[in-house]
């Protein structure tokens, strides 16, 4: 077997275009890397595959703990492949994975049927130390998978608030999963998350739980009317489904496709993606600046000196901030990306 470390960028790009799973995985590993040399290659890779991206259904999926996200994705993904002839990719966003290992082993177990499909590609989040790094790698991985011909990309988030906002900034439709519970069905659902949702599905609507799921759907539909008083504004539809029986899954996907069609018909899909690109631009700028502040030797030395003087009360916070920023400004011109011609 050829040494993967010696594979060139041309071969990786050709592998993406021909659907070579090993080379697709290699490309994703490249964009996950934070090494400067790898980032330079990743920028060139993304630039060259750009014409092949943008046509997929980009769907974010989140939900409360116990809502059965992985089981739902397994059932929906296999259904989209077997009955609708889609190619489905799944990316998981879990910023906690670097500390706890995340739940990807359990996720892959619950997605066992989907992972065996030739038309599916399931990828866990990288072990990045912060959400920004995970989001960057996820977004760039999504572009690679689109270039490889996957026309449905499902981005799963663990549902911790910030990760949901990050995912909503890279998808066309945000699907929130909820489960019927005893007592207050709406307890623990934050208004901000409801405002992100484009489609809502009450899962586990089968057996003895089916009636409770339907009741929860009615209550949540009423709650959605309270989220906004603007009757002209679109409200997320609330449906019920079962990942075990398959009931309602087609209805959920129909609402996802209808939402995508609405965006296209109103000319909002292109503007939504442009807004996402603009937000992504400034996120990348902030990430690069913060990484430089954290890692540049001259800036680190200046920060340590300022903190020591601050502790001795010989320097104010304002003076210290100015000194660190001055050092940073002097450092910028010496950094590898300062004169790069490749897009960030």
TrEMBL record:
Note the superkingdom of the native organism.
Answer: Bacteria
Example GO CC term: the record gives: cytoplasm
Q: Which keywords label this protein?
A: Hydrolase
Provide a Gene Ontology MF annotation, just one: GTP binding
What the entry lists under InterPro entries is as follows: GTPase_ArgK, P-loop_NTPase
Q: What family is it from?
A: Belongs to the SIMIBI class G3E GTPase family. ArgK/MeaB subfamily.
- Per its record, how is this protein called by name? Methylmalonyl Co-A mutase-associated GTPase MeaB
The taxonomic lineage of its organism, from the top, reads:
Bacteria, Bacillati, Actinomycetota, Actinomycetes, Propionibacteriales
């Amino acid at each position: 077997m050829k040494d993967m470390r010696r594979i060139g960028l041309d071969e990786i790009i050709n592998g993406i275009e021909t659907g070579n799973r090993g080379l697709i995985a290699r490309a994703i590993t490249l964009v996950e890397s934070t090494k400067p040399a790898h980032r330079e290659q990743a920028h060139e890779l993304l630039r060259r595959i750009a014409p092949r991206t943008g046509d997929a259904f980009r769907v974010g999926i989140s939900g409360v703990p116990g809502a059965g996200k992985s089981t739902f994705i397994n059932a929906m993904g296999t259904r989209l492949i077997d009955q609708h002839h889609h190619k489905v990719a799944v990316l998981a966003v879990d910023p906690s994975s670097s500390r706890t290992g995340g739940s990807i082993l359990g996720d892959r177990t619950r997605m066992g049927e989907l992972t065996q499909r030739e038309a599916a590609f399931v990828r866990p989040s990288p072990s990045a130390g912060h959400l920004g790094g995970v989001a960057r790698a996820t977004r760039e991985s999504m572009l690679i998978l689109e270039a490889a011909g996957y026309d449905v990309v499902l981005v799963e988030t663990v549902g911790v608030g910030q990760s949901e906002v990050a995912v909503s900034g890279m998808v066309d439709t945000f699907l929130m999963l909820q489960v019927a519970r005893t007592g207050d069905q709406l307890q623990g659902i934050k208004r901000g998350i409801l405002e992100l949702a484009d489609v809502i599905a009450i899962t586990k609507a089968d057996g003895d739980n089916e009636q409770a799921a339907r009741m929860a759907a009615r209550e949540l539909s009423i709650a959605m009317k309270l989220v906004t008083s603007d009757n002209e504004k679109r409200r997320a539809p609330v449906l019920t489904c079962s990942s075990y029986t398959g009931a309602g899954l087609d209805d959920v996907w129909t609402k996802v496709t209808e939402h995508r069609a609405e965006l296209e018909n109103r000319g909002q899909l292109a503007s939504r993606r442009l807004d996402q690109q603009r937000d992504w631009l400034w996120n990348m700028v902030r990430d690069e600046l913060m990484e430089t502040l954290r890692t540049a030797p001259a800036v680190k030395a200046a920060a340590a000196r300022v903190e020591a003087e601050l502790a001795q009360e010989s320097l104010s916070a304002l003076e210290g901030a100015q000194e660190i920023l001055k050092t940073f400004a002097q450092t910028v011109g010496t950094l590898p990306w300062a004169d790069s011609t490749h897009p960030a």
